[in-house]
Amino acid sequence: MSKYIIHGGKPLNGEVSIRGAKNASWKELIISMLTHHPVQITNIPQISDVKIAESIAKSLGSIITKTGEHSLEIITPNITNSIIPHGTGEKSRSSFMFAAPLLIRTGKAIIPLPGGDKLGARPLDRLFECFAQMNIHTEFVNDTIVFTSDKITPTTYTFTKPSHTVTEVILMTACMVDGQTILNNAAREPEIDDEIEMLNSMGAKIRRNPDNLSQIIITGVPWLSGTKHQVIADRNEAITFAVAALATQGTVNILRIDPAIIKKFLDTIEIMGAKVETGKDEVTIAWTKKLTAVNIETEPEPGFMTDWQAIFSVLLTQARGCSTVIERIFPSRFQQVEILEQMGAKIKYFNPKIKDPENYYHFNADSDRPEYFHGIKIYGPTQLFPFNGTINDLRSGASTTVAALVAQGKSVINKVEYIERGYEKLAERLVALGADIEYIKI
Q: How far, in Å, CA of 394 to CA of 390, rounded?
């Protein structure tokens, strides 16, 4: 059980380069399996989610060669079996994304239930519905999902609510299906656009409707070639370093990031009083005066990203006034609150009074529970105290790390393996900005 030992209370200042996006890198590794030609992917982060995807791909027939510190070459001459292995498959909450290359190249995909989750908590119903329209059959056998098709067909599908991951699976599955597939109310995240760019460089014909960016038109092609592709920058990583600097009253120059893909975040912190200067592929964020409270709601792109709200909650504990955070993407995603309260944060749960919750929230109604809260109020500024305990989630783990950097004194954070799912060498890079962190890897 690895740990961080953090002595907080020091402003973070300096420069940091952003790695490739967690939410695109390992998925683009799966995209490479759609062809038997060599695919080179650069700017791949060294994180455990990528390693898990590599392990699964190798078990299915991929030959993966490391060509640099952050680059891989993937060749999949043949898919050698259609079964995602238990163990590694269950570690990845989105292992069902491998269904696309398996179905395209073998007509069958056997996937363990993702991450052991109950299906109601994640919108897989939208995948099953669209697959059914594409002549892909879904069957549940013990603890696995079995997808089969003798001939995949094109379709027009309208998402009742946008789904990031399901949009990606359908893109991959439809790109070599004869005919035209149209996705309406599809997700608009920049990571998806990066994957579309990669697929098109392989010969796919995918485009967004310029008059309606939520509509994606896929015209099937008979085969895909190899390519060389650079992974888009990680938005979550950029926000983490920005919040760490602001919460400790410092300044950070963030390199290798297109400010446009974090515009909602930048607009929000400017409202709070932060100083923001942007360039072509960099942004400087500085604390110059006391920050003020702000109200946010998580939404699909181009809104405030759900992955940002846990780390952003730390910053709100240091802002003057009462801030509110409403989570509209997931029914229960305030795992960071318990730890922040232990550290002295003043937070109150509430449920917003919504006239039309079915359309307001983006999760399925049957995923909700009476005991879930969809909003929190954060009162600040508040002095945070050191933390000594164990984390059990990537995003709350990152928020605990930043909170410990704010707190005066010694914090010990156990089980930082969760953080390594999505951040490459986080402790080392924070130390380069002036943080006092000892990383004990076990």
A: 12
In this predicted structure, the answer to whether residue 143 has a pLDDT above a threshold of 90 is no
Give residue-wise pLDDT tens across range 368-401.
999 999 999 999 999 999 999 999 989 999 999 9
Burial class (CB in 10 A: 0-12, 13-18, 19+), 151: exposed
Using pLDDT thresholds of 50, 70 and 90, give the confidence band for residue 119: very low
For residue 5, report the phi and psi dihedrals to the nearest 5 degrees. -110, 115
Token pair of 187, please? 């997700």
Statement: residue 123 has pLDDT above 80: no
Q: At what angle do helices 235-247 and 309-316 cross, to 10 degrees?
A: 10
190 membership: H or E segment, kind and range: helix 190-201
Among 202, 230, 258, identify where a domain stops: 230
Taking the CA atoms of 168, 169, 171 and 175 in sequence, report the sign of the dihedral they define.
positive
Domain housing 313: 3-19+233-440
Helix axes 99-106, 22-31, angle to 10 degrees: 10
Q: How far apart are alpha carbons 28 and 437 in whole angstroms? A: 33
The CATH number of whichever domain residue 395 belongs to comes to 3.65.10.10
DSSP letter string, 153-210:
---EEE-SS--HHHHHHHHHHHTTSSSEEEEES----HHHHHHHHHHHHTT-EEEEET
d(CA 56, CA 81): 11
Task: Reply yes or no on whether the pLDDT at 120 is more than 60.
Answer: no
Q: What is the DSSP letter of 231?
A: P
For strands 436-440 and 13-17, give the pairing: unpaired
Q: Which pair of tokens denotes residue 318?
A: 């240091």
Looking at the fold, whether 298 and 346 belong to one and the same domain comes out as yes
Cα(7)–Cα(172) distance, integer angstroms: 46
* Global pTM value: 0.94
Averaged confidence pLDDT in the chain: 95
Residue 367: the pLDDT is 87
* 312 vs 246: CA distance, rounded Å: 10
